[in-house]
DNA sequence: TCAGCTATCCAAAGCGCTTTGAAAATCGGT
DNA sequence: ACCGATTTTCAAAGCGCTTTGGATAGCTGA
C-alpha cells in the first residue's frame, strides 16, 4: 500500500492525498475526511525512507550505547534514560537510532551519521572533562545535546546536567553536621565530568569546614558493586578508618553495605553512607522510607528533558544553546547517623 | 557530498561510482581504487534514506524498549542485551531503531514498522505465556526473533532461550541434596514465559524428591530489590520458615541479602540462596568467587546470538525458523550451604 | 454574461541512490 | 586489418514521497 495506489483507489492525485494527510489547508474538509478514512481503513502509512528522502529529515535521533572502554560495562542508567528520552521523542515523531561504537572512536560514528544523513541530531552521554566530542559535533554541524557538561570546553553548547558539585557539597556538609570528620569518597572515574565535579563539591565542603581531604579516603573507578565492596573493606582495615562514606552510585553503595555486613557493622550507626541515586526504575531506593540517605535526581526525567531540548534545537537551530541545571534532592534515609564517639569505636 | 558530485569530480558516471563502491565486478581494479580513494578523501558516504529507498531495505532492526506496564520499570537486562545485539548487528551493517510503546499496544508498533517499511526485522523481548505478538508478526510478515519462548504458541518461529526449566530444576535439586526441605521461590511475573518455566523446573524437582510445594513459599512479582527484601522478611516471620530461597534475579537476591542482614542471619549458613544471574556488566556476581550460588547465563551473549539469527533470517527467509536452547551454568558461590538442623534453628 | 477571485485539485520535478539495458572501448585471434 | 568476445562505462528508469507551479472549477459582483 503506497501513496500511488491509495490515490488511485480514491480517484485523487498523489498531491491531494499527501496534502490531506499532512494537514495542508489546500484541501477541502470533505476530501480530507474521505482520504483519512481510506488511509486508516487500508492501513496506509507513508514509507519512512521515501518521506525522509523527500523532506530531508530522518526523524531519527542518534544515540551511542554508553559503554566504558575499560570493562565493556554498559552504563546502568542507560535503560531508564533512554526510556525517558524515547517517550518524549516519540511525541515529536522521532525514534532513536541506537548504535555501538567499535573501539573508541565515537567521533567516527558522528561523522558517519552526518555524512549518511542518518539522524537529525544526537544525544551525547557521559561527557568527560575536556570532552572532544563537543567540538567535533559543533564542527560537523550535527545538532546535539549533552547529558551533563564538560569542564574545560569553552564552546557554547546545549546541555542538561545535575548540579553535581552542589549535591556532593551538601551531602558532605550534612555528614559534617552529624559530627563526622573522616569522610571517604567512593567516586566514579574522575575523567568523567560528573565525578570530577562531585569530588570538587566534596573537597570544597571539607575545606570550608577546615578539614583536610585525605587521599587515602578518596578512590575512583568504575562504579560497580564490587568496587564499593572492596574499597570499603579496605578502608575499614585502615588504622584510622572513615566514619562516613559518600558514594557516587547506588550500586557501589550496595557493595558498601555488603562490606559492612561482612565486618559486622551496622550502616547508619557504625558507619554512615550517602549515595547518589539516579532513581532507577529497577533499583529503587525506597519511596517513603529511603534505605540510603541520597542525593537523588531522576535520570529518566533527564532523558525526557534532553529529548525536548533536542527536538527544540532541531526545529529552531538558531535560537542558541539550551542549558539547564537540575538540583538533586537530598533525601534522608537510615544509612546516616551521628558520628560514633572515638572511644566507642576504639573500644 | 553526494554520488552525483563525486561522480562529476571523478569524471565518471554515477553508475560506475556506485558499482565501484559496492564491490560489483563490472568495474576495473584501477577505477575502483581511484573511486575508493576519492570517496575516502572526500568523506563520501551514501545517504541512508536514498540507499534504502533504492534497495528496499532499511538496514534497521526494530526494538521496543522492554518496560513492564505495571511499574514503568525498564528491564534491567536491556542495556547489556542491546549492547550484545548491537555489536553483532553492526557487523552486518544494521543499526537498531529503538522505540517506546505508548500504552500497551506493541502490535500497533509492529504494524506501523511494517507499513512504513521502517525496519527489516524486529527482536521481541520478554515473551509472555501465550504471547500474541508472535502470531501478529507472523501475520504481517515482518521477520523476527524472540528472546525467549512462549508456552502455548504452536506456530513455528525463531527463538533463542535459556533452558529455564532445567536451570531451576538443577538449582532446586542442588538445594535438596544439601538437605533443604523448605525451599522458597521468589519468582518474576509468572505470566512471563521465563518465570512460568522456572517455576515448573522448581516444582518438578520438588515433586521428584517427594516434597510438596508450599504455596506460601512461592511468590511472583516484578523482580526488584525491594520485592526480594519484603518477601524474605515476610517468609522469615513464618512459623515454619524456608531454609533456602531460589530467586529469579540478582537484584531481588540483593534484597534477600538485605533482609537476612536485618534479621541478623548469615547467608549460606542460616539460609541458602540461589539466584539466576544474567551476568550483567554492571552487577557482576564475582568472577572467581561468586557471591551468590547462581544459574548463570549471559544476556549479552544472548543479544549477540539473537542478532546473528535475525540477520540470517532476513537474508534467507525461506530457510525456516532458527531456534536455540542455551543451558545455564550452575556456579557455586558462598550463598549456599547445608540445611541447618531443625534444633539449631529453633534454638 | 463575464472578468476576477478563491477554493480545490493536479502533473511533474526532485530527493540520492541502485540497477537495467545498451553503448563504447579494448582485446585476442585470424 | 578486421571481427567477435569481453571489459568497461554510461544514460535513464525507478524506489515512494513532498512540493512547486500551474490548471480547473465554483463563486462573486458588475
Descriptive notes:
The structure is a homodimer of 347-residue chains. With 347 residues, chain A is α/β, with parallel strands linked by helices. Chain A folds into three domains: 44 residues, lambda repressor-like DNA-binding domains (434 Repressor (Amino-terminal Domain)), CATH 1.10.260.40; 132 residues, Rossmann fold, CATH 3.40.50; 151 residues, Response regulator (Rossmann fold, 3-Layer(aba) Sandwich). Chain A is 43% helix and 15% strand. Chain A has 13 helices and twelve strands. In chain A, strands 2-1-3-4-5-11 form a six-stranded parallel beta sheet, with helices on both faces. In chain A, helix 1 packs across helix 2 and helix 6 packs parallel to helix 7. The radius of gyration of chain A is 26 Å and the shape is elongated. The C terminus of chain A is likely disordered. Chains A and B meet through helix 4, helix 5, strand 2, helix 6 and helix 11 of A and helix 4, helix 5, strand 2, helix 6 and helix 11 of B. Chain B binds a DNA duplex (30 and 30 nucleotides) through helix 2 and helix 4.
Amino acid at each position: 500500500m503506497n501513496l500511488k495506489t491509495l490515490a488511485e483507489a480514491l480517484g485523487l492525485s498523489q498531491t491531494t492525498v499527501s496534502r490531506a494527510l499532512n494537514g495542508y489547508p489546500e484541501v477541502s474538509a470533505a476530501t480530507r475526511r474521505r482520504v483519512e478514512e481510506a488511509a486508516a481503513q487500508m492501513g496506509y502509512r507513508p514509507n519512512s525512507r521515501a518521506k525522509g528522502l523527500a523532506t530531508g529529515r530522518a526523524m531519527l535521533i542518534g544515540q551511542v550505547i554508553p559503554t566504558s572502554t575499560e570493562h565493556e560495562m554498559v552504563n546502568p542508567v542507560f535503560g531508564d534514560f533512554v526510556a525517558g528520552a524515547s517517550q518524549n521523542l516519540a511525541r515529536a515523531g522521532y525514534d532513536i537510532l541506537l548504535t555501538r561504537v567499535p573501539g573508541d572512536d565515537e567521533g567516527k560514528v558522528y561523522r558517519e551519521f552526518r555524512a549518511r544523513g542518518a539522524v537529525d541530531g544526537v544525544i551525547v552521554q557521559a561527557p568527560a572533562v575536556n570532552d572532544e566530542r563537543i567540538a567535533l559535533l559543533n564542527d560537523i554541524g550535527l545538532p546535539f545535546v549533552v547529558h551533563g557538561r564538560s569542564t574545560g570546553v569553552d564552546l557554547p553548547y546545549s546541555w542538561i546536567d545535575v548540579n553535581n558539585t552542589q549535591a556532593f557539597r551538601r551531602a558532605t556538609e550534612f555528614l559534617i553536621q552529624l559530627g563526622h570528620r573522616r569522610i571517604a569518597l567512593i567516586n566514579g572515574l574522575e575523567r568523567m565530568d560528573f565525578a570530577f565535579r562531585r569530588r570538587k563539591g566534596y573537597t570544597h565542603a571539607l575545606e570550608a569546614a577546615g578539614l583536610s581531604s585525605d587521599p587515602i579516603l578518596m578512590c575512583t573507578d568504575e562504579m560497580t558493586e564490587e568496587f564499593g565492596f572492596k574499597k570499603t573493606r579496605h578502608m575499614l582495615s585502615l588504622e584510622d578508618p572513615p566514619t562516613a562514606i559518600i558514594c557516587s552510585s547506588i550500586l557501589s553503595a550496595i557493595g558498601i553495605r555488603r562490606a559492612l555486613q561482612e565486618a559486622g557493622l551496622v550502616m547508619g550507626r557504625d558507619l554512615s553512607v550517602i549515595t547518589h541515586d539516579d532513581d532507577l526504575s529497577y533499583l529503587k531506593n525506597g519511596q517513603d522510607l529511603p534505605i540510603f540517605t541520597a542525593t537523588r535526581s531522576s535520570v529518566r526525567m533527564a532523558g525526557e528533558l534532553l529529548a525536548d531540548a533536542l527536538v527544540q534545537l532541531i526545529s529552531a537551530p538558531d535560537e542558541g544553546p539550551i542549558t539547564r541545571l537540575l538540583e538533586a534532592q537530598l533525601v534522608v534515609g537510615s544509612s546516616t547517623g551521628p558520628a560514633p564517639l572515638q572511644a566507642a569505636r576504639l573500644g
